[in-house]
Amino acid sequence: MKEKLLEIKTFLDRGEEEKAQQMLRSLETVPVRDPAFHLELVELCEQWGVIEKIAGELHLALRDLPEDRTIIRKLALFYQDSGNLEKSEKYFRKLLEPSNMDSYRELWNILEEKGDIPSLQSLSLKIKELFPDSDLAGLKIDIQKPEEESPEEEADEQMIKESQLVRFVSLFSGREGVYARQWVSPTGETGYTPVKEPFNYKVAQNHILGNYTVGVYQLRVDNTVNFIAFDIDITKRLLNRIILDKSLWKSAIKDAHSVACNIIDLLSSHEIPAYLESSGYKGRHCWIFLERPISAKIARAFDAPFDVILPEEGETFETSSNVVQPDIIVVCDKEKITRRGCCGAPDLVVEILSPSSTKRDIKDKRRLYQRYGIKEYWIVDPVNKRVDIYKLNEDGKYGFPDVYAEDDKIKVGIFNDELEIDLTVIFAE
Fold first, then answer.
1. Most buried by CB count within 10 Å: which residue of 3, 299, 408, 412?
2. Do 334 and 350 fall into the same domain?
């Protein structure tokens, strides 16, 4: 069977994706008692969009390693992404550990998505018992209900043109036959519960008027999406610390706005129309509306900010306030890669400058990356076609940068100069 995997990889190396996908679908793997084989097959199926085979291979891996938490978590996350929240909940419950708040938070997120209010309240009491200082401890939860419309609201409704509602519903069309409605607890905690009805003009109208808040499930039943969203929010823990300090909050919002502007600038440079929106006190949204639906796999690769989490002394990866999203990273220690992102310092970071990011990238991030021992920090200036490379010296400091112009070649230090990058290719028009 391993020979079959090699054959599939050969097809992929040649660019014969359809043949590789056909082979992946036709493999009969039930007799194989090798969890590593099944997990490798899962990675190939994820990479090349053979979604229908993933659950079966994960279950076969779990058959051979029934207590393996990594496999159980993969199943829980797969069913969550597939919209099968009942099965996702089942496997997240298997992961609960009395000493691990993260395991309870993941289950909480699933119950929120299901809108299972009784289970959320029960879980909140359990969290209060085990983690009394958690923000999820002892909450009382109610579903947000729309208020009766006043004559003034009825007049407002008439001001929204039908053509605008048609456009709005078209732009934000997601999973068919269901949308989500917000609930809110007396302490201000919020979440969403599914409503198994179409997202229609009336629902959109009530949302726009503020009668209630709704959301859509972006993934359609055919595994495609109609839009791409970049959600640039202040982390919840940081927000709780700064919300009452106006100057700190303004600084954090300014950072979120800067990140959003970088995204808009980058998209504009590739002639991709995008729209910037304030998401209130939490941050910014960037929207791309597609002319036609595209594969969710392509959208995830396009809209995939990857967090690098660098905790301060006394912080954990869960509580860290240092979360950055570099343009490119290289991580040689695979143990640092988790679903959250890179937990710890990458080996190499690349930041691509835009007019709104220059000062922060050159000064603030250089200090941060030096402090956490990132071996190489590259700053790419696409306008002036220049690359500055900072490397840690024996004292753990960045000295003066090595500067490269558009016709130079760079030997990558972390790979012992065995990898060479030709900047004439990188900066080609």
1. 299
2. yes
